[in-house]
Amino acid sequence: MRKKLIYVVAVSLSLSLFLFLGGCGSGKMKDGYYTAEMSDFSYGWKEYVCIYVKNDQIISVEFNAKDENGFIKAWDNEYMRNMMTTSETGMYPNKYAREYAQQLMDGQKETQVDAISGASQSGGNFKKLTVAVIAQAQKGDSSAAIVPSGE
């Protein structure tokens, strides 16, 4: 009986320790708003991703770019019309930004995204930004993560 009790206690302690240590590296995201942005402007725009996390779930995603004055790329109708007429794919910032954001919403912590034709550079940046913003959420660090542009 005593051996059985010692065995049960040992197993229980081992299981508790395993669950505790496993939980420390589980990658759970903490509630809050998190941002990652590129370190430099590219063609006059600096891309960024903002997410809102609640109960370890990404509730909202904004992927966009801003100019030096803070003007949002997706709001630039002239830029959109120009891209739609000169791009073979008809892709424009407001469209691809929503599509990339939806991929993150669908995949949650999954940082692999499908490239969108006509927005491959932004897709590469989105992937880098996503990795950084999820790391911020896992740490609970609400400061903006700065992602090196040239890497």
SSE layout and pairing:
Elements: H1 2-24, E1 32-38, E2 46-54, E3 57-66, H2 77-86, H3 93-107, H4 120-139, E4 145-147
Parallel strand pairs: 1-4
Antiparallel strand pairs: 1-2, 2-3
Walk me through this protein's architecture.
By secondary structure, this protein is of the alpha+beta class. 45% of the residues lie in helices and 19% in strands. It is built from four helices and four strands. A four-stranded mixed sheet has the order 3-2-1-4. The longest helix is centred in the first third of the chain and has 23 residues, at 2-24. Residues 2-25 have low confidence and may be disordered.
Strands in their spatial order, largest beta sheet: 3-2-1-4
Mean pLDDT over all positions: 79
Question: What is the overall number of helices?
Answer: 4
Helix fraction bin: 40-55%
Sheet-strand content, in percent, reads 15-25%
Which terms summarize this structure?
globular, alpha+beta, 4 strands, 4 helices
In short:
With about 150 residues, the chain is of the alpha+beta class.
